[in-house]
Amino acid sequence: MYVSHLSLLDFRSYPSVDVELEPGVNAFVGANGQGKTNLVEAIGYVATLGSHRVATDTPLIRAGASRAVVRTRIVRGDRASTVELEISQGKTNRARINRGQPGRARDVLGILRTVLFAPEDLALVKGDPDGRRRFLDQLIVLMVPRFAAVFADYDRVLKQRSALLKSARAVRRSGGPEAAATATLDVWDGRLVELGAEIVSLRLQLVEALRPVVATAYELVSEGKGEALLDYKSSSTEPVDNSPSGGGSGGPGLSRSAPAPAASGGVSAGDEGVRTEAFRGSGDSVEGATSVAWIRERMVAALDAVRQQELDRGVSLVGPHRDDLLLTLGGLPVKGYASHGESWSFALALRMASFWLLGGAAQLGTPPPSAPAFWDPDRGTDADPVLILDDVFAELDARRRERLAELVLPARQVLVTAAVPEDVPASLDGVRFHVEPGAVTRE
Ligand SMILES: Nc1ncnc2c1ncn2[C@@H]1O[C@H](COP(=O)(O)OP(=O)(O)OP(=O)(O)O)[C@@H](O)[C@H]1O
């Protein structure tokens, strides 16, 4: 697929702009702060309904305006769709597809797929677990848009449950009775487990599918220096982390998980908890430990074990919001051990692997990787995502620049931003645009 037209109204620094794009490479070049990232951020927003730079929508609306509009034309095979998104201050965002009636923004998910590389990706490997959870969840929604509702429901339940825990703590501190709050807590626990187990299961399946692809991508990006491994660490089966940010190394408080059921091929979660690494290369044995029913069981037990701690602290300690994607290189954690260059290569490998998994591998002429079990990929119909490389080449040395350029070149469409023309590798030949405040001119 590719984006053939982008039109912005009051989005970031643009009062109004129209850009015709081509399949292949489109490079946006201009000095710092001219609005290059704003353009690709808008395209990424149409695919994910989120920005790679900010967590809320307000900064996306031009200062002084009350709403922003992003309109794109997306070509897939011999079909074209128009998607128009209205981002409003203090109101629900709306979407129009093919100039139809305005509807829910969420309905546009799945029409455009993008994989975006940006300097912010370094935080994906070096930062808090939150970014890595978002990486997994965003990829799941790109594959199966309807799961966006599961994530949204989980967030809502988590908020309600956490508020309840806080008020129970306050009642208790003032010497009041806790019984009413804990009875309501049981109801929220049911919803938390139901939705949480589904999310953990999806993530485990995705990690399983990503693992070999990330290893290959890392080998290609770094030219074979070290083995890149992924592993999923679940708070539902691991000891609870008592640190304020959560998701770090385990601390005391929760008994170790029981072995997986016989249906899982006898794989013991044991000291490893639900660590997908335990299932590497073990064929169908991963199914038992990724089954929603099995995870649900573990989550119920984990919640039971931490109930008192949760009431003491007023915080939800178990569930996918406390999990992490563990990244290791040559047996050592990336965070805290890997060099700057190695961390960068790992981040690039995660994005490259996402691109291949979403269908980009077809362009490379290599066999497509195995899809996660929850996804039935629609390969072969121009499904490969649009690749966005935002300010990435300036961060890489000459060899890795060429390496990355080689890998992305076969993609159906690549959008590149760079402050100076020399930052775009010569092999990425295509259309160039000059960007200056409020205007984008094709060269
Ligand atoms: N909501 C907004 N309203 C008005 N201007 C905004 C808004 N958000 C960002 N800007 C402006 O947009 C500009 C940044 O644009 P952008 O991040 O696209 O720059 P860039 O060309 O990618 O720069 P660099 O090369 O430094 O990464 C800044 O001048 C910033 O003040």
TrEMBL record:
<keyword id="KW-0067">ATP-binding</keyword>
<dbReference type="InterPro" id="IPR003395">
    <property type="entry name" value="RecF/RecN/SMC_N"/>
</dbReference>
<keyword id="KW-0227">DNA damage</keyword>
<dbReference type="InterPro" id="IPR018078">
    <property type="entry name" value="DNA-binding_RecF_CS"/>
</dbReference>
<protein>
    <recommendedName>
        <fullName>DNA replication and repair protein RecF</fullName>
    </recommendedName>
</protein>
<feature type="compositionally biased region" description="Low complexity">
    <location>
        <begin position="254"/>
        <end position="270"/>
    </location>
</feature>
<keyword id="KW-0742">SOS response</keyword>
<keyword id="KW-0547">Nucleotide-binding</keyword>
<comment type="function">
    <text>The RecF protein is involved in DNA metabolism; it is required for DNA replication and normal SOS inducibility. RecF binds preferentially to single-stranded, linear DNA. It also seems to bind ATP.</text>
</comment>
<feature type="region of interest" description="Disordered">
    <location>
        <begin position="232"/>
        <end position="284"/>
    </location>
</feature>
<dbReference type="InterPro" id="IPR027417">
    <property type="entry name" value="P-loop_NTPase"/>
</dbReference>
<keyword id="KW-0238">DNA-binding</keyword>
<keyword id="KW-0235">DNA replication</keyword>
<keyword id="KW-0963">Cytoplasm</keyword>
<dbReference type="InterPro" id="IPR001238">
    <property type="entry name" value="DNA-binding_RecF"/>
</dbReference>
<keyword id="KW-0234">DNA repair</keyword>
<feature type="compositionally biased region" description="Polar residues">
    <location>
        <begin position="233"/>
        <end position="242"/>
    </location>
</feature>
<dbReference type="InterPro" id="IPR042174">
    <property type="entry name" value="RecF_2"/>
</dbReference>
<dbReference type="Pfam" id="PF02463">
    <property type="entry name" value="SMC_N"/>
</dbReference>
<comment type="similarity">
    <text>Belongs to the RecF family.</text>
</comment>
<feature type="binding site">
    <location>
        <begin position="30"/>
        <end position="37"/>
    </location>
    <ligand>
        <name>ATP</name>
    </ligand>
</feature>
<feature type="domain" description="RecF/RecN/SMC N-terminal">
    <location>
        <begin position="2"/>
        <end position="419"/>
    </location>
</feature>
